[in-house]
Amino acid sequence: MSVSFSLKAFVAAGLLATAGLAMSHGDVTPQEVDTGDLPDLGKEALTENPFRKGNEHGDKHAEAVKVGKSGYAGNCAVCHGIEAMSGGLTPDLRELTEWDDEYFIGRVMNGTGRGMPSFKDNLDQTAIWAIKTYIESVPQPE
Predict the structure, then answer these.
(1) How far apart are the first and last CA of the chain?
(2) Considering only CA atoms, which of 121, 125, 89 is closest in space to residue 104?
(3) 10 Å Cβ neighbour count for 85?
(4) Which of 10, 18, 84, 102 could form a disulfide with 93 if both were Cys (CB 3.0 to 4.6 A apart)?
C-alpha cells in the first residue's frame, strides 16, 4: 500500500465525515418549553412578534426573553450556536435582519426543507415568539 493511496483514503474519509456533519443539521429532538406566565397566543400564526416592546404583549417582554433563552438553548443552540452565534454551518441568527416576523414564524413552524425541521407540532406559538424575542435581545456582532 503506497503512502499516496493512504493519504487519499484519509482525505476522503475526512471529507465524508465533514459532509455527514453538514447533513446532520436539523436532526434535533425538540424540547418542551415552559412558557410560564406568558399568554397563550393560539394556533393562528401571528405576523408580528407580540412580545416586542410597544406591541400587544410588550409588557411581557422581559419574561419572553427569559422563556426564549431557555427555549433557544433546548431547541436552537445545537445548530445555530450558543447565544445565536453560529459556528459557520448555519445562519448567525443575530444577523438575519432581512427576516421579518412573518418570515421567521413561517420558517420555524414549517422548516426549511434543507435541514431545519418544522417545529409546529412541538413548540406552540408562544414559545416560538419568546425565542424570537430572546434572539432580538442578544447583542449584534461587532
Answers:
(1) 50
(2) 125
(3) 15
(4) 84
Per the CB < 8 A criterion, the answer to whether 129 and 84 are in contact is: no
Comparing 102 with 141, the larger pLDDT belongs to: 102
Report angle CA 97, 113, 78 to the nearest 5 degrees. Answer: 65
Task: Determine the Cα–Cα distance for residues 40 and 46; give it in Å rounded to an integer.
Answer: 12
Is pLDDT larger for residue 4 or for residue 122?
A: 122
Angstrom distance (rounded) from CA 130 to CA 49: 9
Q: Which residue has the cell 435582519?
A: 97
Helices and strands counted in the chain (H then E): 5, 0
Q: Where are the alpha helices (DSSP H) in 24-124?
A: 61-75, 77-80, 101-110
Pick 103 or 141 by higher pLDDT: 103
pLDDT in tens, 73-115: 999 998 888 888 887 778 778 877 777 899 999 999 999 888 8
Provide the grid cell at 74. Answer: 433546548
| 28 compared with 65, residue with greater pLDDT | 65
Classify residue 77 by burial, with Cβ atoms within 10 Å: 0-12, 13-18, 19+.
middle
